[in-house]
Amino acid sequence: MGIENYMEQARDQILRKSLMSDEFLDFMRENRLPLDTLMAHYHCAIMEMETKFNVLNRQFSLQYDRNPIESIKVRVKSMESIIKKARRKDIPLNLKSIEKNIRDIAGIRVICSFQDDIYVLADCLLRQDDISLIEVKDYIKTPKPGGYRSLHLIVEIPIFLDTEKKQMKVEVQLRTIAMDFWASLEHKLRYKKNIPSEEASILAKELLECAEISSSLDMRMEKIRNRIAKASLAAAE
Known about the structure:
With 237 residues, this protein is of the alpha+beta class. It has helices spanning 3-19, 22-30, 32-64, 79-89, 95-101, 115-126, 177-190, 197-236, and strands at 69-76, 106-112, 132-138, 151-160, 165-176.
């Protein structure tokens, strides 16, 4: 077993034990209702964000006769994932700290047809006056070393409750179909255990090459779309 796999398994065992610690059990017992309320608020934020993207997709369909969004995926982190991340970040185990320091509890992934659609949609979203940008990480212009590509935004969006308006953080990921396909397979392969270090190094190079091929495919398809649009416009004149 490689040292990296060994360390990962050891870390997972520690995290599992921490999930059953007295501190964790006390936290769950004391915060059950506030915790359920907070998670409900994250679900509401996701619904608000999903609606915004569906509206934009509908507008583009009516105005430009095309749909920039292929699909939308949403998720709210499980409590196990939240506690694990709190442990990794070494933050206090309380609701206030979790809400402040873990900014991707609510997440939405928007799968776009073409790479330029990603930036158009991100710009449209960020120009809305109820959206506040907290952080942007552009892994398309600057991919991760392993080949991962996506545009990540951390934003705040308001949800309207019976007695108050509350700002909630949401992570927005925008990527093309090819980027999503690569990321999905890479995620599955990365968690395979007991791979010898030499073979793991070879596979990492293969995955990086596949990421480059996927990026090249995105650019070629975008050029084809532009040529089709140009030809159609010329024929209509």
